[in-house]
Structure formats: C-alpha cells, structure tokens
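Good morning C.,

I know you're traveling, so I'll keep this short. The sequence:
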Amino acid sequence: MHTNTDIWQQEKKVLEADNLHLLSIASAPNFAGTMRQQGIKHAVNLYDVITKRTTYDPDDYLFFNRAPVPTGTNILMNADGFLALEYDGAPIGRMHLYPGTNRAVKEIDYFNPDGTNDLIEEYATDGRQYTQLLYDEGKPQEFQFLNLKKQPVIRYYYYENVLNYVTIEDPETQDVLEHYDNLGEFVSRQVAQFLTVQDQVTVCYLGVEMMALRYAPSHNILRLSEDPIDQQGEVRGNLLGILNDDIAYIQEVQMDQAAYNALALRNINLSKATVIADD
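The tokens, ready to paste straight into the viewer:
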C-alpha cells in the first residue's frame, strides 16, 4: 500500500474529515503496519477478511537473520540496500526489507540459474508470511494468499502472463468454494458479500475502486476528486454514465461548486449531484 501519492492523501483527508472506516480492496502485506503508521484506527483489508488474518502484532516483525532461507545460505548486504542470498558461492535470490527498518523482511525472491523469478515470498509487517508467488521460467503461474497457518485461501492462476482464474478454497480440505474468471469479478463479488444495505460507501475516483461496487447493496457515493472534464474537453465517461444513471450503482455524486458549474454549463443532468464545500 502506497501512502506517498496524491490519491492516498485525498482519501485520507476524506476519511479523517468524515470519520469514515476504510475498506482496502487490493492485496497489501503492509496494510496493518501502514494503517498504524498513518493513524487510521478503523480499517480493514478485503484479502485479510477472506483469509481470516484477524490478528496483528504491531511490535513483531521478521528479522532478516531469522528469515526461513535454505540452510547454508549466506545473507549479504549490498550497496543498493538489498540483501543478496548466496548458496555455495552462487546467487540464489534477494531479500527486500521494509523501508526505514534496516532489518524487517518484506519479501524474499528466489531466482532460476538464468536470473528469472522462481519463487517470491511476501511477509506482512508483523513478520508472518502473506503470499507465495510461483513462477515458471520467470512467468507468473500461481499466486497463493495465505492464512495465519500459511495455508492457501485465495489463489490466482495465470496463463501467458494474464490472470485468468481466481479461487477461494477451504484451507483445510483445499476444496474450491468460489471461483472467478478475472480479478475484477472476484473483488466486486467479495465486496458485495462484505457490505450490507445499511452501509454507506464513499469512493474518490472513477476507476477500480468505483467498479468494485457494481454489485454492492450499499448506498454508494462518489466524492469527485478529479476535474470532471478530461484532457479532450469532454465530461469524463464514467462520471457522465453515473449522472445519466447508466451506472446506477453509484447513487450520489458529491462535488465542489466549480465542478457543478462546469457540468451545468453543458446541460448535464445533475439530479444525482450534491455540492459540498471545497477543501
């Protein structure tokens, strides 16, 4: 999860101003630690919900010299900040640390003899393994999202570098409980299961986070954080779709007076629009 972006700063401002809860819909090994660092008290990650990663120790982490590398592996600090992994004098991988820690393991990459990826292990900020990412000749094959027992719960399957199948399974029996043909369908269906008709959801942008609500039973609001007019001088397509009610799962659009006026001058239907104070 990246916090040094304009998108995050805008969303954090909305969270704090309206005392909202955060639902993160992307896999994020650093989610719990980042939320603590950012001072966000009410936050949940969709992948953590599905894998039941319900506990987090803010005072723990995986020290690099305790990382589960093959016996006999040498861990060497490089000038670029990465830790090189060598076995019998040959490079076998690389270790990444969480920024600003100099010791907490974030990711371990294992290489094929030709230097391409073979296996990647991601670790949460409390040191527990988060994923196992499997490659074949450097191409992604299967990504596994683990529970606290290191059992796969969510699996991504790739073909020719394209993610084309997602499953949720029983971690004990490995029986497939749900399956999806693409990531967007997986996220939106799971979001719909998580939310209820009593929930009110606010999104700030017209992309993936908005589309994740397309099956949700909640009352969904777009807090417009972009210029309503694109670089070609046209009303943004998804915004126009919402205002014309072609995208009916967004019931309200909140915008500042300038955005409202720009749309009104074009005779756009503004029955779903609400003017809010300009931040």
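Safe travels,
E.
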